[in-house]
Batch of 4 targets.
Target 1
Amino acid sequence: MSILKSAIISSLGTDATFEGRNYPGSVDYCTAPRGKFADAARAMKKVHALLVAEWATDETPFGRGFGVFACYRWGPEYLIVKTALPADDPIFPSISDKFVPASRFERQMKSLMGVVPVGHSDTRPWIKFEDWPEDAWPLRKSFDASKKMARVDGRYKWIRAAGEGVYEIPVGPVHAGIIEPGHFRFQAVGEDIINLEERLGYVHKGIEKRFESLSWHDGARLAGRVSGDTTVAHSLAYCMALESMTGCAVPPRAQWLRALFLERERIANHLGDIGAICNDAAFALMLYQMMRLKEMLLRTNHKLFGHRFIMDRTIPGGVSADIDTEGTGSILAEMDALLKEFERLVVIYDENSSLEDRVRETGILIPDKARQLCVVGIVARGSGLNLDCRTQNPFPPYDRLNVKAPVLISGDVHARAWVRVEEVRESIRIIREILEGLPSGETTSETVIPAPDTSGFSAVEGWRGEIVYWLQAGPMGEVNRCMVRDPSSVNWLGLEQAVHGNIVPDFPVCNKSFNASYSGNDL
Amino acid sequence: MIRILRQIFRTGIVTEPLPPEVEAEIRDIGSKLEESVRKRFSRSLTIRQVDAGSCNGCELEIHAINNPIYNCERFGIHFTASPRFADMLLVTGPVSVNMEVALRRTYNATPPPKLVVAVGDCGCNGGIFGETYASLGGIDKVIPVDAVIPGCPPTPVALLNGILRAIGGK
């Protein structure tokens, strides 16, 4: 029995039931009474599990009330705890005192679903803005998403800092560069940041609600636009959750091509990020050199797969783009050229002492904090946490590729940059291996609609980190709920902590080293 | 240092001419364009990019027109940090309800004469996000739009072409 499951059983005993049609079977799924929801969290904390996500469902179409879910991870294991809430009394015990990221998840659940976490110390809304009507809970079935909302008066209560010489710097939502909108409020003394509070939600487009009005097939297109820079990984995570529910067997060739797309997306974004980190430390040469290499990859994508970001090429049941021997040859040649150029630039990065001065010991997220905040992906691996779905929950073909995920413990800007450097190297190796081992055969298989009241889960290692989807089919087999957890939802918390004690001018380089998505967070 | 210099010289100038069909189109609007840029923008066009709710796909391509291969600065186009200095707002969408006020304020902060170009399918009409409680749809639902650049996301060439067309047309 898995460690998480036995921890739940020894803590909750017969109160926890393991049943229901939830997929894939490798994920443990238990139902606990409302009063035991926090006990389950305590049991998970005791065995050093990390919180993956927490979300709510409106299950009135099934004649039930609301559902509240928490998903935990320990090593390769995932476990989901569900508790049911009556429709007329939607309150549940908060787990935010046990898992820090639950504080934001629960604020969001309260804001968008109207389920109230009891014992949560922060009653402010999240994603929902102060000018929304208080009873606007878009994820409830009774909410008409096609109607415009009325605007009301309201004021957001910022965390304040006071004292001699303390001043505030409000930044955003419209930032100075070509980036997404969000608001940062710094409290500083002189140049030193004593506190940073993020306020996100500006690009909330109602994505989770939108899924419920689309067909399962069109959902893959919407997933590809949750965060445009991660289009492959999001579509893939959505498709895998759906395929687990329908028992769809994806042809091996399609699985390998999906991995090829995923690794190409990883390299392209890492190249851009390494360049941008250097640029924020005033080393523009690296930005332009890296952008040049990135452009080379995007052009090859366009030529071979018909889209620069390989958008909409991952579809339920397989992929909609294939590769021939000529294409294989051109990617192999491209990888050779890329690696040669890349290594040259890495030496320049490594030898530049003025750059080193800016990126080392800047924006440190210590391993202890990283663990408390349950951060994922590049941020986790830069702070000593060995988390990577490709090594811990390897779906085909990763079970045969033997991925080596780099882990650094210094937790600074350099660590997060260097994790990317190592990953570019590793992804080049993986792409070569994929192209050598690419099986022949079909690239799509028949897909069917999931059975009513089933759920599907998936976790995919996008370039930022673990992306999680949880799908629930309604009474007619339609989309009843699509929960999206972009890595940014947890990694944004890391940035707030990492900038403490740093100087304000170092914020851009710290921020860039996290490079969290606003759109993926705001949904 | 020697490595940096060697890398610079080895790379050389990688900026490309635009594809022939785009070049031709630019030539077509050439005289008008030159006159308009010279007259209205003193041969330099300053753009403030505003993300009014995009998925960040369009932003990737707007970044790309600044890369050395597309190099938009050769046309006198450059991006500014403040709307106060901008001749053009390059706006990606859909406009989220939570960005509506910020977009209006940015528009009002931009001195006239100003051009607004809506970028991407979502900027044009809301795209896959449609018009919902959280998404107002295309940019023209909130501020006046002078030109549109469709695509999901539009390629760098389409972006450059669209920007040049927008200033040529006015």
Target 2
Amino acid sequence: MSIFLARRFLTFLITLSGASVIIFLLLEVLPGDPALTMLGVDAPDSAVVAIRLELGLDRPAAVRYAAWIAGLFHGEMGLSYVYKVPVTELIGQRLQVTLPLAIGSMALATLAALSLGIFAATNHNRIGDYGVMGFSQLGLAIPDFWFGILLIILFAVILHWLPSGGFAGWDDGIWRGARSLLLPVFTLSLSLTAVMTRVTRSAVLEVAREDFVRTARAKGLSRRAALWRHVLRNALVPVLTIGGVLVATVLTGTLVIENVFSLPGVGKLIFDAISNRDLMVVKNVVLLFAAIVVVVNFMVDILYAMVDPRIRIQT
Amino acid sequence: MALLSVADLTVELQTSRGMAPAVRGVSFELENGGTLGIVGESGCGKSITALAIMGLLPDGARTTGRVELDGTDLLRLDEDARCQIRGNRIAMIFQEPMTSLNPVHRIGRQIAEPLRLHRGLRGANARDEVLRLLDRVGLPDPARRIDAYPHQMSGGQRQRVMIAMALSCAPDILLADEPTTALDVTIQGQILDLINELVDDLDMGLILISHDLGVIGETTENIAVMYGGTVVEQGATSSLFAHLAHPYSQGLFAAIPRLGEARTTPLRTIPGTVPELADLPPGCAFADRCAKATDVCWRQAPAMELTGPDHRTACHHLEVVA
Amino acid sequence: MIGLVLTGTMIALALVSLVWTPHSPTEIVIAERLKLPSASHWFGTDQFGRDILSMIMAGAQTSIVVGMIAVSLGAAVGISLGLWAAARRGWVEDMIMRLSDLNMAFPVILIAILLTAGWGPGITNAILALGIYNISIFARQVRGAGIAMWEREFVLAARAAGKGNLAITVEHILPNIISIIVVQATISFAIAILAEAALSYLGVGSQPPDASWGRMLSESQDYIFLTPIIAVWPGLAIVLSVLGLNLIGDGLRDLVDPRMARRR
């Protein structure tokens, strides 16, 4: 168990540092002079010199990289070149929108997918199964931003029930904020639900054919009891895997959905930063997202070992 | 009245080519504490017969006939009532001990499950009983083994766990479907001895299913030989071995390798293969592999005829016995 | 079957648009702006009076070209790495798998954001981002299937005949896993169409004046209170194309692997 953990942790560290190097290379080294990237090629020389001094861009790349990483260990991400405020502060603010959106969508999708997947599997090859599978095929094919636009047309333009976008903030009570996240969460969970439903269904079907399920039934357990006690936990491994993969989908999904509903989240921040050529913001936000993906996958590995005792002895 | 009475049991299974009869008109009885061996090649319907008695056939299977336990027809019971009987009055152990235990639960919990379900035992009571059962099936160091996971045990140990699980509610009948086939030869004998000993001690009825006529002959009082979904010969073991009447049974007997035979003696085999369920001929199922087959065998299925004391055979070409 | 029809329609639309569209997809006629569907404009017109049907036909071209290039790029690199990992195992495999872990830490949109922030927006960045993203997907699939193949008897036989790793890979491994690759390519193509639309919607994909379904949607969103219908057509085009490809992918997979057919 501990060897397994140690190995996974090592991989995790390597991946994380690799990610930071790649981000740094792509943003500050490969395109050429970062000062020019931020100001444009035709910027006056005086401005270029000024920004070099201000951001210390005259130092060699390796030194700048080391300074960036050292700063991260102290919880510092530097100043946003455009807003002149610490990037950590900017991200912190925006996460108040992005995190609830991501977590809400994941939670809703997990609930919906487990119910739909189990329902479809227990009604294998019957009308309910076909219905669920048809829905999930459609869910896979619908671009989430288009689904969001359709929801806006239905609920804001036609029915006038909900706002077409914008965020009311958490200050006027949780309900006001949650209300503006309702459609976004629903939008983002569609494709997630579709994917997880398919995986849940096939995992349950697969496990239900195993010999030990027949053993459970031979003990006198009803179909339902055998499903809950013996099938589901074994079916959880593939569902967990896809859950880990989908975290990346959710994160990048928030970037898109925040755009659809004009929500002031991290997604808005990063696209503004791109138009403003605010490299400090871009580099740290991208690293944050990549780090979340890596951390979640590390946690999924540990969860595997908890769910399936056999994995503990393997590497 | 017999403890278990199976009469004219027919099972049709769903296949890609439509419904196919896997068991056709099987009948036998098992007395209280009696032992019956069902023998035949794989695909002859012996496992399906066992699953039909348990009520655990695959989805879409159609069953007709009667399976009476103490006079109650199990086939007419609803699912809840059948769950009450499974694991409680009739228990079953399977061929594959490697895959028949749930890999994510400790074995103690898996053995305790029927105890909780049928006897209402929980917590420490259930654990004590599990320890007693593990000890009873001869698993070394039960106190440590109770918290093991299946993957930490050998095949023989897992089969002992399966037996402990089956015994847990002191069933009237134990169904053992090829319980030793997947095990090492050295372990096979131990497990068979254990089953024999438990059946004697607990006065359980036993239905032992095997492809090995030798194993069956040593273990059970009665034998039913199955081929192509039907019983072709059945009766008391002593009576059967005194005079195997059906050509298929004779072939099976000849195929048992014997100690002491010269190594150069070729293994005897029955020519041909088991027919596909869906293509069973209208007459005797064994006709196309039988040396004695004549026109009548292809046209008409033979009926069971008395071929000795407590011994009946279904064949058109029985040798007349005095 | 439905999949073939849908995908066929999409390809046909793209091909026809090369030589003919009902109107020019870029011609701006302010007098005709935001018209509902009519006999002359079947799907209506957008905020500049451009014919939506013509734009969708031209947009199909963009989707197909982006998808084709991105998937080929990802497949070419990914398959080579996967085959190499399966053939060599050991440190080569470890290195390739760690690289693929790293690759997986960057979803398509993050790669596109990095490229755009460094080099400015453009369709090339979108294609590159999608291509890079596909590398690890193909590499992992091919490695898994390849390792399984290496354990088969015919490989042992080839080895016994004195064939080297490269020869075995080309003659025995690749032909036996090609079906898996084709299935993956179909599905990757579908994902590429979705992703290209999303990137263009966000402004980090294709740029004006190229027609793109994603950008049509982002532009239409400003006018949903006036003419919501213009936000419907490009979305439908995406859904039907992706659905078609996914259905083909599933169908192929069932053909290739009957065990999977039972599961879904």
Target 3
Amino acid sequence: MESIKIYLTLFTTSIKARMEYKASFLFYVFAILSFYAGQFGLLFILLNRFHEIKGWSVGEMVFLYSLQAFAFGFTNLIFSQLVNFDKMIVDGEFDRVLVRPLSPLGQVIFSKFEVSTAAHLIIGFTALYFGSCYANIEWTLYKVILFPVIVTGGVLIAGGIRLMVTAVAFWTLRNRSLVHTVIFSSKEFINYPVNIYNMGMQFFLTFVFPIAFINFYPAHFFLDRSGAGLLHPSLEMGTPIVGIVVITISIFSWKAGVNHYQSTGS
Amino acid sequence: MNPKLFIKFVSVSFQKQVTYRFDCFVGIVNGFLYVFIFTSLWKALYSQFDTTVHNGYTLTAIVTYAVLVMAVRISFTMDDSIIYRKVMDGSIAMELIRPTSFFFMNLAENVGHSLFHMMARTVPIVVISVLLFDIYIPLEVIRILLFLVSCIAGYILVSMMNFIAGLLSFWFIEIFPFLLFKYAFYTFFSGGIVPIDFFPEFLKPIVALLPFQYMLYFPTTILIGRASLADAQSIIVAQLIWIVIMGVICHLMWGAGKKKLIIQGG
Amino acid sequence: MEQNKIAIKVKDLSKDFDISESGRGFSGKLKALFYRKRKIITAVDGIDFEIKRGEFVGYVGENGAGKSTTIKMLTGILVPTSGSAEVNGIVPFKERKKNAAKIGVVFGQRTQLWWDLPVRESFDLLRVIFRVSRTDFLSQIKKLDNALGLKPLMDMPVRKLSLGQRMRCDIAASLIHNPPVLFLDEPTIGLDVLAKESIRNFLAEINRDEGTTIILTTHDMNDIEQLCKRLIILEEGKIMYDGETELLKQKFVHEKVIEVEFYDDGNTIQGIPGVTVVREQGCKKWLTFDNDNYGIGEVIGTIASRYKIKDISVNEPSVESIIRNIYNNSAMLPTT
């Protein structure tokens, strides 16, 4: 109970610290929106010219995008400090974390919440609305209940991957490019339906680096699509389970990283 | 600026990059990831139709474009927050008393960075792509020479764009939103992902008024043979005009920034 | 309540690091992309010591001698390669959190305060993290404010504080939970003379009044001379000296330096047993003599009887010059 109180205090403090820069907050939101506008723009140029992508219509593509925006939006909010974690190691900031009577992971996560994530959520809701309209999604009660469950699973997958990559910094010190590749660049994979890739890549994105579970598989369920390629009907609901598996593995790798740090220093 | 000094700066900046070998290997994966995604996307899009030519591109041509534009873009990688860091830690004041031109020193640093990325990332990525994908490059000596000239011009334009974005740190505490903004514009309007030929008609006049297409799109079209040799020459002339325009902007902004620095002491 | 008298107990403590070397120059750097040499260095090499409650110990050594590594092991940041350590009866690398609750740590180069927040908020956050009750917190803050003059700083964001102000706040922050043991790593680095003085006074005060055990690493030997009764000197991971700061002089100083000013500069000092001239400057001469075998009165008497002296003084070597001497094994010169 006591630690919940501690974390709540850390949470409010980090929000306060962020709000010291209010002007830049709005500016961030605006910049992120423009970034997405660019991505959407290119997608529309392609859909305008080619009408659909491997059987995915404009509405369905937009819905696919909304699932991704939600998952990465919440992941950004919760796990934002992990992006710059290698700096904490290099600057010796992590020593500071270790001399406090609190879990290191808890301290790192609660040291920063990127509230400009609001931008991702704006995108998520907008895409969800238009996606639902254009793809004629029938929102049954079952789907409405499962939507947040799927998003949570997606956050666990994206957050777990982020945590695993972050933990690599314990061994390599600087891992910015890895973080960049795995966290940001790999997102590009699921901007498009995963069935555009060859079988090997589909397998990779399903079983090795399971980001296809963030939007591609669950989208079939919400869109009432029948799957093609690697998709087995049971994978549609795999997101929460995969999420739990990924986050569990990532917590173990983080712990291994902390142990490594404590035996080698920086 | 003294060419010897220029080369010295290039070499120092190059060596700085090599220090992080882990980053270097990850960089290849990162670059190839984009190549893989976009070639897969184009193949998927083209497979939906019986027509083999879209907006003047055959599948081979568009795949070649996707690979090469990414190769050029990766070679153009530079650290766009150098100036920001110098303003933040106050070392920018040193630049005022140095007898060398700040712009050229900055350029030298960028060139070192880029040479490294060219060697460590572009070359392996192109080699892998040539082995994996169906790529066609017309091997005419004059064409390749014109491409190189156009590439250098494009490079200078990108460097100027980053210089201008960096100089904004004289007036703003946070420039990351600007950089994101710049990234979005650059990615969209430079033809870095979708060639300008696919843009809808209403966007083309806007594209024509901006310098971005001269950074990646035009140099690449020269190499893949979409631009005739005569076109190539007028492209280079247009690039030079843009270099002059952006050079004036750089100069004026640097002057204003210096003045601000002297009056406010940083 | 029976209190254990020992605050820190270190036995045969060692720490090895596995280092990989990156190449030099252009070709070396390129080669390093593919192959790097590895080697093992022993940062701390089987050290033993015990520190009693209420002691104020200086822990010094050159860069890379193993000071920080020791501190990191005692604060639970690093796990030793071998050996044992106990702080307040707790093994720091086994029960990190439990240990952290009972120690205070100040890293001179890095703040533990939240950069963008007013000092007050940081203190309050630390209060919550260290589970200090509000009444204890308020009385502790009051005490710290009296000694360190924190009041005017409390509502300022940390990024706006000067280095000296920030260090005062940082030390206060490390004491919010009133820890029995305090580790200070270079707390006076980069500070001006006045700021150093106020921090030294405060440290002496809490050591005296609260009985706080303090371990201080520093490069500033004035810190040591003014504060630390006991000194531990480290060299290449081994303890070179462990004892009273005062006794260091007796142990390592076999020569004393006499500064003599004559009326004219033509004197050549010769033939006085045990005395050698180490430096000359106009009418001033610096002489050393072997103080194990000759008495000071005897030497001065001989000089005074042979030459006309304007002024004479005997210089006590500073701790700094003694330590430098230990490292360099070279002749000790007065540092003027």
Target 4
Amino acid sequence: MINRWLHPGAWWLWALGLGAAATRTANPLLLGLIVAVAALVVSARRPQAQWAGAFPVFVRLALLVIVIRVGFAVLFGVRVGTTDLFTLPSITLPEWMAGVTLGGTVTAEMLVIAFIQGAQLATLLICVGAANSLASPVRLLKALPPGLYHVGVAGVVALSLAPRIMVNVRRVMQARRMRGRPTRGLRAAAEASVPVLESSLDDAINLAAAMDTRGYGRATRTSPTERVLQAGLVLIGLVGIALGLFAVLGASGWGWLLLAVGLMMAISGILVAGRRIPRTRYRPDPWGWPETLTAATGVGAAVAVIASSSSAISLPLTWPTLPPFAAAMILAAALPAGLTPPPPLPWRTA
Amino acid sequence: MIRFSNVTFRHAEATRPVVAGVDLTIPEGDLALVIGRTGSGKSTVLNMINGLVPHFTGGTLQGQVLVNGLDTRTHAPRDLAGVVGTVGQNPRAGFTTDTVEEELAYTMESLGFAPDTMRRRVEETLDLLGLAALRNRPLDTLSGGEQQRVAIGAAVTAGPAVLVLDEPTSALDPTAAEEVLAAIARLVHDLAITVVMAEHRLERVVEFADHVIRIEDGHCALEDPAAAMVGHGLQPPVVRLGQAMGWDPVPLSVRSARRQAADLRTAAFSAPPRRVGHDGVASVVNTTVTYGHTGALRGVDVQLRSGQITALMGRNGAGKSTLINVLAGTRAPDRGRVRVHQDDPTTLRGQALLRRIAYVPQDPTDLFYTDSVRGECEATDHDTGQEPGSALARLQELVDTVDPDTHPRDLSAGQQLALALAIQLASAPDIVLLDEPTRGLDYPGKVAFGRWLNSLADAGCSILVATHDVELVAVIGDRVIVLADGEVVTDADVRTALTSSPAFAPQVQKVLAPLPVLTVEEACSL
């Protein structure tokens, strides 16, 4: 296959599908399988770019989540189950904090439940981390519909200014040292913040001027009716989404309908807004069969897991079994590791 | 093409206009060079053409500026984007995407060009500016000259009639500057683009110009280059040489000067010696510094000598800043030994550091953290335990026109440099490290700067200046170190170094070769 970038939207659909699956299952085997699949695909298709180093960071974060969750269960956990492991000295809290226990007996059930709940969140984090190191954030923002173009540009600018601010900080701290002033402590940070902010502001102003001279923000003239239509659609749509979500969470039957109508209105508002922006795109990432395959395997894994697994943890604890259908669909999400085009090779010095 | 009709511009709340009563017309397809002292309003004149003045900067513009028939009063910069291409002073700061190809397409995307047109134009521009090999490169990995050429390419892909360039070569090494100028000349010749360009370092540029717009006290007019280069302090060495020798017409290029200098080249010349200095101030021994997998310095050996000005030269990315950082102790070497006297500079802090090393970064404002010149000077007196007012006195020795209540960022480039030196020299350090100090300095500013460094060196200081400016090195340098790819390729006295390589030869040397003459003053003694 010829090296090319896979559409960033495909990677995100894939990753969010796996992530959704992770939040809907309490089966540690399935969770482990999801992590393994995500790691496999990342190692196979991660490009050699600076932003692609996000995955290990997210893995560390995920491990931290599990440690914290289990730690809390040990310290503050309410006794569940009957398999006592050990007893910590318990502290009796004053009357007004009744209901919170510190220490006490720790059971195996408590630890397992905490571990599985932590692992769900951790797996979700790992899936997001996978998307972050597979899909270039800049390319993702570029793939936004024209109606969201200005939001996308703001994102791109933020992404490119953040590292420049770090460079400014380092430069100013070096200069402070050369003036013989301390480089640590609160006072140093306060004093250094002035030149850092000034030079970062200069950067931002220069960029804004450059973008202005390059035609950014040019809009075609629109009729007032069109503007009212666009604003109305987006506003009513957003209210619809909010009410719909509220109803869905409250398990009312109307929620889904309201949500769907709200979404449709907001999307059509964005599409109408997009017509005002006369912008075209240079060599957009194509959506071919590898993209469809990638997105489908992710969504498929989510659907299979939601259909065949439960997010409730049943007591007494039993050894988990592997639901064959869900496991197969999660394994299928590993297909992009081999069936997508590899990312372009990085530029190398001679 | 570009017509200024009685244009006056005033910043908001300013009493004096930046420029007043400007009337001029730049014909289509010509290259106009805007010159003037630092802060004279060169950028303002340029930005009137692309509409940033007054739409982006604010202020009051009287009169009318017409670009290709469009009035900048009714057309904002974004509306002029298809007509005027702009390249700012720092191309890196204006990049909006992350790879070369996308950067070239950005303006066309904003203007809504059809995808197949965009594709074709990008390919044409890649070829026109010699960027084809770089097409997929991330912009961060490009050298300064390459970035400048990408910025120029990005400004011309949309097919503008006018190209505005603000100091396109001031940050570049001599070879990269030649490449950028060649690219600009090609645009003028092949695409008949009208180019308006501001520049401080005129030595390479003036021969390309069809017109010169010299700004003085807010006034300017379109002049013939040969006439415009006479009678003021903004002259490149070759013009000064021609004037000193009484040549008529005054030469603007090395080539025409050589024709008139035939007699001069046969004269006898005894080269005046430069400072030799004494060993033992600072040493860099077999030092290697790596960033990732690339070596910024590879086994470098350098001895700094007291009472001597050493120029550190080489391409962008050759390791000049890294060597300065290693000597300043802001970067520890991966291998090797660095000593300033007996001290490892990375261990120095506070007073001990100030007594050993003075450092002026590329952007002197990094050093400032108060809101006035007086505040900076008082902080320095306090830090170094000197009498109140001594830093300010030192500053006034360097420049006598600074108002102590000015914000450091509002000073001109030359005044900022003077303030940085006045602060950093408080404890009479042994070595002075300067990273690209003359960026943004005009010729009179450079003469003053050279005088400061000369008196420091005469007082026994060891000075290391990283610079691309061969003309500055020819005047003040005693010794030249050339780095290439992290290694020392030349370490010699200034005359040997600058006469042996065409890339580093100053203009006077090019005119008078084979005589080893470096400066106009030396040529006058022939």
